[in-house]
Input
Amino acid sequence: MTLMKSKIRLFLIIAAVALAISFIFYIPGTSAKRRIFTFPEIGTEKTVVEVRYLRTPEGMDEVTAFVNELLLGPQTSRVRPLFTRGTNCSFCFVRDKTLYVDLSANALLEASDSASILEGIRYFKQNIKKNFPSVREIQLYIGGRPVE
Output
């Protein structure tokens, strides 16, 4: 009977330690959020979907972190990045349900491995709206100039 009590006690101790460790490592606001990315496939009209779990760095909002990750391009092979590699975000913020984003002038360059400019813009907006439904409008700028 004491052997059974010892096993139960050991189990309870292990469970308590595991629970304590999970509370120590869980910090509200820093957990990774599931985000869905879509990119055009090379040579077809298909769209490739990637699921990533993103953590938002301290001092950065979720939308900016998402835009930066989106500009890095796909992780899957045979998939086009939305814009020429090296394109980055000059500013990104949401005000009154409108997202304002300025991409560097590199976005205007068309590389053979990236999507066309119009296709890249379409996918960019689609990705934002899918992941941030509270954003109603997107004001996109490239090199400081508005994109219509």
Observations:
- The chain is about 35% helix and 25% strand.
- The chain has a mean pLDDT of 87.
- The radius of gyration is 22 Å.
